[in-house]
Each structure stands twice: as C-alpha cells, then as structure tokens.
Amino acid sequence: MNKQTNYLRKLLPAALLITAVAPANAFCPVNFFPDPLFRPSFVSSQASIDAALTAFNARTRVSIQKNSDVVTAAIGVLTAQKALAATQIGKAIENNTQVQAQAQQSVETAKKLKEIEEEFGARSQGHEPCRVIAERQEVEKVKENTQKAIAQMINSEVTARPGRWASRRTALAERLALHDALYCTADQVSSGLCKRVGSRAGKSLEAATLFTPAPYDSAEYRDKSAFINNVMGLPDDPLDKNLASTSNGVELMDDKRRKDSINSTALAGFKYLQAAYSGVPNQHLSQANKELPVAKSEGDQLRQAAQTASGKNSAANTSYSSDGSYGSGVPLALQLKNDVSRYFGSGDEYKQWSKTLVGQTEKGVLKEILTIKALRLFQQSEKYQQLMQIEAMVAANVAAETYRNGMQANIENQRNRITRSNTAAAIKASQ
Predict the structure, then answer these.
(1) Do 366 and 310 share a domain, yes or no?
(2) Considering the chain, what percentage of its residues have pLDDT values greater than 70?
(3) Co-location of 260 and 368 in the same domain
(4) What is the arithmetic mean of pLDDT over 339-362?
(5) Mean of pLDDT values over 263-289
(6) The domain boundary residue, chosen from 319, 344, 371
(7) How far is Cα 283 from Cα 147, in angstroms, rounded to an integer?
(8) Is 346 found in the same domain as 295?
(9) CA 177 → CA 155, 171, 180, 222, 236, distances in Å?
(10) DSSP letter string over 16-58?
(11) Are residue 155 and residue 42 in the same domain, yes or no?
(12) Could you say which of 51, 226, 260, 370 is the most buried, measured as most Cβ atoms within 10 Å of its Cβ?
C-alpha cells in the first residue's frame, strides 16, 4: 500500500503536467493509466471515499434531523412559552383591569358614602334633632293650651273676677282664714293680726311667687292665686233687684262694668305669668277647653290646701309629667329656659351640645344656627305678645286715670249746668 502511494505521488505531478499542456478539448479518462496496480487502488479508494461520503451523509442527515428536532422542539417550547407569556400577560392585564375597576368602584362608593354621611349622617344633623323638634312642638302646644286656659283660670281662681257679684264680708272672712292658716308672717303674729306663723308665710304677698316654677295645682301654684287675689281685692256686693233698675243702680252697674274691664287687663297678665311658670292641667293632652278642677273660692282653696297637707291630694306636687314624653306638662317659661340653657349655660345639656357641635360638619353647624334663630324668633314673638299686653294695660290705665281725675263727672256736671241754664232762659223768655 505504501509502494502504491509512493507511486501515485510520483505519478501525480506528471499527470498534472499533462493536464496542463493538453488541449482544452482533450480528455484523458482514468483508464488512461496502464499500470494494473493503480486501478484496484483507485477503485478501492473511490469505494472508500464513497463509503465515507455515504457514512458522512448518513451522519449528517442524522445530525441535521436531530438538530431539526431540537430546533423544532425549541421552537415548540418557545412558542409554548410565548403563548404562556401571552396568556399570563393577558391574565395580568385582565386582573389589573379588574383591580382598577374595583379600586375605582371603591373610590366611587367611598365618595357616595361620604356624601350620604354629609347629607344624612349624625355629624350633619346638629344636636339631637329628633328631641329638639319634639320639644319645639311641645312648646307650641303648651303655648296654645296656655292661651286657651287663661280665661278659665280667671273664672275659676279669682275671687273678684270680672262680672262677679258676691258678699264682700264672706269673701273677706275666707281670705283672712286662708291667710291665718298658711301665709301669716312673724311680724303679723307679733302685731296680733293672726295667731301663728303659716307654713307658706308671706308667699301670698310676694310677686316673686309668680316667677317660681311649680307644677299645676301645687302649693306653689295656690300661692300665685293667693297673691293675685290680694292684688285684685274683694268682690262687689250684689245689688238688690229692685234697685238695679233705678238711675243710681244703672250708674252703679256701669261703674262695675268699667272697673271689671280695666281690671281684666291686669288679670290677663297675671294669669298668663302663672300659667307660663306652672302650666295648665292636661296640657300635653290638649284638654285645656275642659273645666279646670280648681277651687272656686278661697274657702275651697283652704280646704284643698288642708287635704294636700294631709296627703289626700299630693300627687300634683310631685312632678310636671308622668307620661315620660318630651316636655309634657312642663310650663312654657321653664321649657324656654331649658332651651336657652342648652345653648348658653354650664349644665350637662350645654356641655353635651358643645361636644356635639365640635364634631359637626359645616351643614350640621348651619342647622344648629337655624335652630337657634328659630328659638330667637319664638322669643321675639313672645316679646311682641307681651308688649301688646303691656299696651293694653297702659291704655286701660289711661282710661282709669281719666275716670279717677273726674273728667267724666265734670262733663256730666257741665252738661247739667248748661241744661239748667237753657231751661231757665226758656222759662224767662216765655214770661
């Protein structure tokens, strides 16, 4: 084999030379070589090369197939990864969109809740609005019932009420007995005006009793009635029917009507104060039109006071109300005082109101301002009514002063003189 190889090595340059110098169209086939040794080697080499090429091709195909499979698998994996990534990205986008939508919804919900809280929440309604409204309604109802009850209180509790004729001696005896039993002072005992100091000493003589809050028909309430009776004096003795039609009787009846009319202005003011600080019966049930269960004479008041002292009729002295509703049975003046104390004072109600006001929104504070202004308007209305009552009393006082100065009598005397003078002149002229 080595000899053949060496021989080929020697022969190869000659072959290349011949190829180089031969004409372009000349071709020398492999069989040109005459040496018999060359041909088998060449065939064997060609076979070896073919086999090597075949094996190389096979290996190459296998390798290419493997590489193709690997690439295909890689592409498949890459595609799957990209698909997974796309799915994950899509899922992430979806989740993000949902989270964003939920967050937006939460923001909108929180906004709506805030608006609802600002509109209807406790921090936007002021201080205990339900209770305050109920109290204001009760105030209006009490005021209405108080005005209705004044005339009945006058007719039931005033000894010298307008239009009444009664024995002055009997009324005086009852008043002295009532005073001796309840209202006699130490100085009056020392002066011999009464026997012993009463349990309500001096209360019937003090105007301060009118402004003392006390339940209806309590001992304090009867103190107010006793004070008013002392101011108004005794009733007028009745006139005999046979004398009522005479000129003097007619004049007396006119004087009685005038006096009672003038006194009624004072009585209306007194009884309004009494009702404002003590209330009227069943006022929370709107029964002021019913007849008041009050003593109609000072003798009856004395007996009623004795029953109260013995415990037979003491229920009225316990409290203003028994039904537990807001303000029921509480006098008008006391309700207004409590309402004012809520906004200006130092009690528990004021402290609670101040604490509530601190936590209120702007709307809640504005509502409280309106509530206070409404109270102010009511007070101004009450003041206006009182001013009208004062005007009526001033007018009555002017009329009474005119009568006391004798202007009416002077007019009558002047009329009589003129009449007599004219009559005398007419008689003289006729002669």
Answers:
(1) no
(2) 76
(3) no
(4) 82
(5) 74
(6) 319
(7) 11
(8) no
(9) 22, 10, 5, 15, 19
(10) HHHHHHS-TT----GGG---TTHHHHHHHHHHHHHHHHHHHHH
(11) no
(12) 226
